[in-house]
């Protein structure tokens, strides 16, 4: 179990948003935190502290007038910490290599693979072929519906028909290096982790998984450790003091 930092970029700024509040219409979202510092500042900090495998996420769609500003921030972060950060946001087989060439260690992908509500296996094969499976992270972030977890896409706005299960993770493992999973219903709300989701993910042996969502205190982090058995990596966003919260970065960076 180790801490994976994050740098979320929206409308050209490093931000922390309430999960599920992001809307493509007018690029709106409910904000928890807006940084006065650029993404490169955080990248250099994570490099100094030896934290690898954090993710930079461009939260505006490629069609947004803000996307270019998002990319400029992301490119600066990748240049500041080459090989130390993953990047997600509009990644596909055609542009994945350009992100790697810009300094990303991995590309983080959702919508390109989970298109039209289904797993697009051909797209997954193309992506793995473009950069190698060892550089692919699948974001299988999910929301609960009818008592089950379903993968969501398009900045968590759309439910797919794909239920998150141990079986689907094993199938997709052939095409990626690891998984990133946000519990979207608790993301950015500092309301506690999704116990059932953490338990589900912890039961998948031999598959590297990073969990995000609801870790709002050191006590909650310890609870996450107990429930997960220390088998999952984790990230903390809005609750981290770097982003306006109360969880001390200086403590969790050593986890």
Taken from the alpha-carbon principal axes, the silhouette is globular
Average residue pLDDT: 91
Q: Number of folding domains? A: 1
CATH-derived topology:
TIM Barrel
Beta-strand segment tally: 15
Beta content comes to: 15-25%
Radius of gyration: 16 Å
What is the straight-line distance between the termini?
A: 7 Å
Can you describe what's shown?
- With 255 residues, this protein is of the alpha/beta class.
- The protein has one domain (6-252): Aldolase class I (TIM Barrel).
- 28% of the residues lie in helices and 25% in strands.
- The chain has a 10-stranded mixed beta sheet.
- A hairpin with a 2-residue loop joins strand 1 and strand 2.
- Helix 1 packs parallel to helix 2 (67-80).
- Pfam families: His_biosynth (PF00977).
- One of its GO terms (cellular component) is cytoplasm.
- Belongs to the HisA/HisF family.
- This is Phosphoribosylformimino-5-aminoimidazole carboxamide ribotide isomerase.
List the helices and strands and how they pair.
Elements: E1 6-10, E2 13-17, E3 31-34, H1 39-48, E4 54-58, H2 67-80, E5 85-88, H3 96-101, E6 106-109, E7 114-115, E8 118-119, H4 121-131, E9 136-139, E10 142-145, E11 148-153, E12 158-163, H5 166-172, E13 178-182, H6 195-202, E14 209-212, H7 218-228, E15 233-235, H8 249-252
Parallel strand pairs: 1-4, 4-5, 5-6, 6-9, 9-13, 13-14, 14-15
Antiparallel strand pairs: 1-2, 2-3, 7-8, 10-11, 11-12
């Amino acid at each position: 179990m180790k801490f994976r930092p994050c740098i979320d970029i929206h409308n050209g700024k490093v931000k922390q948003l309430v999960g599920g509040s992001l809307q493509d219409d007018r690029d709106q979202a409910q904000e928890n935190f807006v940084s006065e510092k650029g993404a490169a500042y955080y990248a250099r900090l994570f490099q100094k502290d030896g934290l690898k495998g954090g993710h930079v996420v461009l939260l505006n769609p490629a069609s947004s007038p803000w996307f270019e500003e998002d990319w400029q921030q992301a490119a600066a972060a990748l240049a500041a910490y080459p090989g130390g950060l993953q990047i997600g946001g509009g990644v596909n087989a055609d542009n994945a290599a350009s992100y790697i060439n810009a300094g990303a260690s991995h590309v983080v992908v959702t919508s390109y693979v989970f298109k039209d509500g289904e797993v697009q296996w051909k797209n997954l094969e193309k992506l793995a072929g473009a950069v190698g499976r060892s550089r692919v992270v699948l974001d299988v972030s999910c929301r609960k519906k009818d008592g089950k977890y379903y993968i969501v896409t398009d900045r968590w706005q759309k439910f797919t028909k794909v239920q998150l299960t141990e079986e689907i993770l094993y199938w997709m493992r052939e095409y990626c290096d690891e998984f990133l999973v946000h519990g979207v219903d608790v993301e950015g709300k500092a309301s506690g982790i999704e116990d059932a989701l953490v338990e589900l993910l912890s039961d998948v042996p031999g598959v590297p998984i990073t969990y995000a969502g609801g870790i709002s205190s050191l006590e909650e982090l310890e609870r996450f450790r107990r429930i997960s058995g220390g088998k999952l990596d984790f990230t903390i966003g809005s609750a981290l003091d770097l982003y306006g919260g109360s969880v001390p970065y200086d403590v969790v960076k050593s986890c």
